[in-house]
Design goal:
Radius of gyration: 20 Å
Number of helices: 18
Order of helices and strands: HHHEHHHHHHHHHEHHHHHH
Helix content: over 70%
Amino acid sequence: MTKTTSGLPPAQTVSTGFVVAIVGFFSSFPIVLQGLDAMGANNAQAASGLMAAAMSMGLAGVLLSLWTKQPVSVAWSTPGVALLAVSAMPAEGFEGAVGAFLVAGLLTLIAGLFRPLGRLAASIPAPLAQAMLSGVLLSICILPFQAAAETPWTALPIILTWFIIGRINKLVAVPAAVLMAAFVVLQANEYAVPLPASPFTQLEIMWPSFSLGAILGIAVPLFIVTMATQNIPGIAVMKSYGYTPEPGPLLSAVGGASMISSLIGAPATCLAAITAAMCSNEESHPDPAQRYWSAAMAGVFYCILGIFAAIITAFAAAAPPLVLGTLAGIALLGVFANSALAAFNDADYREAAAITFLITASGITVFGLGAAVWGLVAGGIVQLVKKHVTG
């Protein structure tokens, strides 16, 4: 087996970490910006939030991987920010959203320290959690097709790039579409996109505001969807490759990272699932004992990308209508397909999952609570009644 020298990462893990960071960042940053925008963030706050999210998952990934000597891949919660993108902005504005981010991080930290809460979150039936996620993603995933009809000259090049490159290598399909989107933005602005005076992102420290509506309507759904679709699967992926991480400390670590980064505008830091597989398999490194370097190096590259978040945000602000929506939709199409399959695959849960999906997709808000909450509640009631009547 290949050995590293003097504590330095093997070259193969450096290249793997670079690919993981490029895929992880550029495959989902548009939906992060859309989620922050829906929560009321201005351009400076969005840039700070994107930087904080990248730095949080980068530093957490580096520290956890080096500490455990296991490939602990960390990410921002893509399903979580997709939820934010279709949720109503809190009455308190972005400060209310920051308070909700902080509470969601606290719940994750407690879930790591207090096992009953972790078990409670894990006890939510997977089909209902996946139905909620697919309902959230539906309105986002139809945006590319709406854009193709309304603004074909900006949307179609992005969609076609994603589709053609995806036939060759799915991992680089969305990053390739991001490059095409950058070209579209440059062309639309006559190659004169207004960039920030400094290439480095400025931190925006935000004081959180708390309200029951934001906690129930944003924090709790953000915690649930992140636990069900990121944290729990992330641990399962590592176990499938022969690693045995202790879930509690990992959950507490990403929860603590979420709490700190929330004060700079970041929604949620969590354990990764897809990039966990990239860091944990044999392509990461032939020696399983050295693969933790791949996750650690991905964290380093995440931090570097986060430093330049202001430039990325400036490009996004200059984008023609629906360009970001097009990118977000194609980036989440695979997630939507997988979540919909998981939601409706089990016949025993199909009716309840359909109720959860449809209510969540409706986008309704009742008593200040968003559709995702009502979808999960209604689906749970339907399943309990069905189980009681038939059982």
